[in-house]
From TrEMBL:
InterPro entries from the UniProt entry: 6-PGluconate_DH-like_C_sf, 6PGD_dom2, Mannitol_1_phos_5_DH, Mannitol_DH, Mannitol_DH_C, Mannitol_DH_N, NAD(P)-bd_dom_sf
Binding positions for NAD(+) per the UniProt entry: A3, V4, H5, F6, G7, A8, G9, N10, I11, G12, R13, G14
Residues of the Mannitol dehydrogenase N-terminal domain: 1-194
Name of the protein in its database record: Mannitol-1-phosphate 5-dehydrogenase
Domain (Mannitol dehydrogenase C-terminal): residue spans on this chain: 203-356
Origin: domain of life: Bacteria
Keywords, ordered alphabetically: NAD, Oxidoreductase
UniProt key word NAD: yes
Catalytic reactions on record: D-mannitol 1-phosphate + NAD(+) = beta-D-fructose 6-phosphate + NADH + H(+)
One Pfam assignment: Mannitol_dh
Length: 380
């Protein structure tokens, strides 16, 4: 069995590659990072270290392709693949869509067997977004057949994999915890037989619970942590003020999730508690800059801050004051090595915080814009 996986980065090697290996796949990693691809081909294996645990795991049965220099080989791999997965970042999905489209065009003309393409990104509707970009790139005469043959089931993936600072660039240190949920309703043909995947009919409650708890809390720790000048998530969470604000933010998203999806209150509180312990893992050092990366994406209308904040004020007619404070901290986030953080600060300087935030978040609710602007004012 062959898996083609786009993105040999942290989650690609540290999570998806690991589960595909356990399931017996030969994994062809596709990336643009020459060091990673050459390393995969030269070493033919890599090591996963589980934070806080002694034993290591070795992943073998791997190959690497550089999509910039070997596009034809990538398309051939897609023709033979039994499953395709991605972990490249939401902003890269439209870029890989062209190669995926060309591979699927070839496949539909030579090997009509269905396969599934699973985007493992932190976003709502990731695989669906990839499907739309892929179909835009498919020749019109083949579009209907490609769409009928290939499934794009949405997924939620959860495992904290920080930036890596290891001697061997392939080695990856991860937290032991993981969750990979895939929706069955959009699958074509057989489900990929991966023991670590939890299949569910409807993904929305799972992806919203994950994004609006793990990632909202993480973003809160990162942006408030940066505000208080902390360098790692653990350092931020060791500051009682930040920890309390993270907790309060997760109470707001928790109310939304419980109201929308009827999660048990105690069960959800236990979920929050586990996540806070994960942020505090003493065996994992996660930089604030990684978790805070791409603030414009994180302030987008369907992402971890704005969507639950608007849902909260809509459902409860109350101000989501903790989420608003985290949004203000995100608007204050500065990092000259992060192009989105630089663009955000330029936009704020040029047009003021309200207009800059409104443009990114697409928020029309005047009361909420006012709330964010007030929080921002208090924090500057
Ligand atoms: N790291 C985590 O804790 C974690 C957990 C869950 C989900 N995710 C999600 O997984 C995705 C990847 O995150 P990551 O932390 O692994 O990032 P990463 O930067 O470590 O990995 C992304 C990889 O994609 C590669 N890439 C970039 N452009 C490409 C292209 N055109 N074609 C092929 N490969 C390309 C990069 O070279 C890099 O190796 C994101 O959507 C992220 O939100 C991350
Ligand atoms: O990957 P991002 O930039 O969407 O978010 C940063 C982190 O919150 C994220 O990578 C988490 O570590 C991960 O989602 C945990 O499952």
């Amino acid at each position: 069995m062959i898996a083609v996986h786009f993105g040999a980065g942290n989650i690609g090697r540290g999570f998806i590659g690991s589960l595909l290996y356990d399931a017996g796949y030969e994994t062809v990693f596709v990336d643009v990072n020459e060091t990673l691809i050459n390393g995969i081909n030269e070493q033919g294996a890599y090591t996963i270290e589980l934070a806080g645990q002694k034993e290591e795991k070795v992943v073998t049965n791997i190959a690497g392709l550089n999509s910039r220099t070997q596009p034809e080989a990538v398309k051939e791999a897609i023709q033979k693949a039994d499953v395709i997965t991605t972990a490249v970042g939401p902003q890269i999905l439209p870029i890989i869509a062209k190669t995926v489209a060309e591979g699927l065009e070839k496949r539909v003309q030579t090997n009509a067997s269905p396969i599934n393409i699973i985007a493992c990104e932190n976003m709502i509707g990731g695989s669906e977004a990839l499907r739309e970009s892929v179909l835009e790139n498919v020749e019109e005469s083949l579009r209907a057949e490609v769409d009928q043959t290939f499934g794009f089931p949405n997924a939620a993936v959860d495992r904290i994999v920080p930036e890596q600072h290891n001697e061997n660039p392939l080695t990856v240190k991860v937290e032991p915890y993981y969750e990979w949920v895939v929706e069955t309703s959009r699958i074509k043909g057989d489900r990929p037989d991966v023991a670590g995947i939890k299949y569910v009919e409807e993904l929305t409650p799972y992806i919203e619970r994950k994004l609006f708890t793990v990632n909202t809390g993480h973003a809160a720790a990162a942006y408030l942590g940066s505000y208080y000048d902390h360098k790692t998530i653990k350092q931020a969470m060791d500051n009682p003020e930040v920890k309390e604000k993270v907790r309060s933010t997760l109470q707001e998203t928790g109310e939304v999730l419980i109201e929308k999806y009827n999660f048990g209150r105690e069960e959800h509180q236990a979920y929050i508690n586990t996540i806070i312990e994960r942020y505090l893992n003493p065996d994992l050092s996660d930089d604030v800059t990684r978790v805070a990366r791409a603030p414009k994406r994180k302030l987008g209308p369907n992402d971890r801050l704005v969507r639950p904040a608007l849902a909260y004020s809509h459902l409860f007619r109350e101000e989501p004051k903790h989420l608003a404070e985290v949004i203000a901290a995100a608007l204050l986030y500065k990092n000259e090595n992060d192009p989105e953080a630089v663009a955000l600060q330029t936009s704020i300087q040029e047009q003021g915080v309200r207009k800059a935030f409104q443009e990114i978040s697409e928020v029309e609710d005047e009361a909420f814009l006012h709330l964010v602007e007030t929080c921002y004012g208090k924090m500057t």
